Amino acid sequence: MTASKARIHIGTQGWNYEAWVGPFYPVNTRPADYLSIYSRAFGSVEVDSTFYGVPAVTTFRSWAERTPHDFVFALKMPQEVTHEQRLRDTLGVSEQFYEGVRELGGKLGPILVQLGPDFDPSQLPALVNFVGNAPKDLRFTIEFRHRGWMTEGVIALLREWNIGLTLVDGRWIPRRVMLALARRPTADFAYIRWMGPNRDLIDYSRVQVDRTREIEAWTEAIVDISSQVNDVFGYVANTFTGHSPATAREIQHRLGQQPVDPDSLGEQLSLL
């Protein structure tokens, strides 16, 4: 399969996994070199660590310095904003976060606003206020984990502000609903997260679950929407199959991209 218009960015959720040393990272790779090696295999990554707190500005600069010029970071909004303050940010955490992410410059992708399953439609005023005040120089995508948000009104709201509806293959909203919504993008980009139905997988060194059918359905959806958006961002969690780098490479292959062979990454390590 080959997409027609959109730039397609496939990667994983995070890069800092010791279990990847051997099956993905070359043997003896130091944690300090994980990101540099990762960025030779994939052109984008979703950063989970920002969910737990706003990194120092120097951290954002370090990420930018250690990756190629066309690498793209997608970052989670801090949980202090999404889960603790429930989008009613009275403490200025979001502004601090925005200031930091802008250090990434052209390497900055969408900001993922992940809302908890207890953030239900009764919180609509907070959502409306958030999307209306989101900085226009940044891209946002919202992940709902309550099915009650999947309405025409919410889709229209996000489309009005060019904010993505995050498409998740997980346990919260049925895949068939997500695949249907995938073909109705609310922004000039699409954002997909492959999570899996549970978190039972704890060995991240190898693929343990066959997700061929799911991957086929999603790659078909990506091809279908590629003429409607400028970018597609897709990130695989280890919990989807057990070893996200291998699954990300499979998705790349199905989309007509040329995956990087992990064996070639040893040469990159020798250059660091």
What's the structural blueprint in terms of helices and strands?
Blueprint: E1 7-13, H1 34-41, E2 44-47, H2 57-65, E3 72-76, H3 79-84, H4 93-101, E4 108-114, H5 124-133, E5 140-143, H6 152-160, E6 164-165, E7 167-169, H7 175-182, E8 189-194, H8 212-225, E9 231-236, H9 238-241, H10 244-254, H11 265-271
Polypeptide structure, described:
It is built from eleven helices and nine strands. Helix 5 (124-133) links the parallel strand 4 (108-114) and strand 5. It has a single domain (7-271), classed as Protein of unknown function UPF0759 (TIM Barrel, Alpha-Beta Barrel). Strands 6-5-4-3-2-1-9-8-7 form a nine-stranded parallel β-sheet. The relative contact order is 0.18. The protein has 272 residues and is an alpha/beta fold. The longest helix has 14 residues, at 212-225. The mean pLDDT is 94. It is 35% helix and 16% strand. It is globular, with a radius of gyration of 18 Å.
